[in-house]
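Sequence, please.
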């Protein structure tokens, strides 16, 4: 019986060692996949960044046009205030919605969340 216990303990030790090796290999594979995706995403992210910069310029043009249109009607100072308040309000709405959606995406898996609550 003692010989069988030794063999079971040896098997268990081997299982633990190989399980650790397997886990490390899986982590390396996941890291390689993430690194590759980030490398592939560089150019599209650059294009999106340029697009955002140009959209910002376009929005500034629209804001300027609105101020020029409203200026003769309500005065230029009030026109600037009106356009700024509208832009700030739209920015807040977009920020809150984007933050909500990002929190959903970045929420930790339920298994990890339960462990952290303990």
């Amino acid at each position: 019986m003692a010989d069988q216990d030794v063999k079971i303990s040896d098997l268990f030790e081997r299982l633990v060692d190989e399980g650790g090796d397997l886990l490390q290999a899986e982590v390396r594979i996941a890291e390689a996949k993430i690194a590759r995706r980030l490398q592939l995403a560089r150019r599209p992210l650059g294009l999106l960044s340029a697009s955002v910069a140009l959209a910002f310029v376009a929005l500034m043009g629209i804001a300027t046009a609105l101020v020029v249109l409203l200026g003769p009607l309500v005065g230029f100072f009030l026109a600037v205030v009106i356009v700024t308040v509208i832009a700030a309000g739209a920015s807040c709405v977009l920020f809150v919605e984007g933050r909500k959606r990002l929190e959903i995406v970045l929420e930790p898996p339920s298994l990890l969340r339960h462990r952290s609550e303990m």
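The mean pLDDT is 85.
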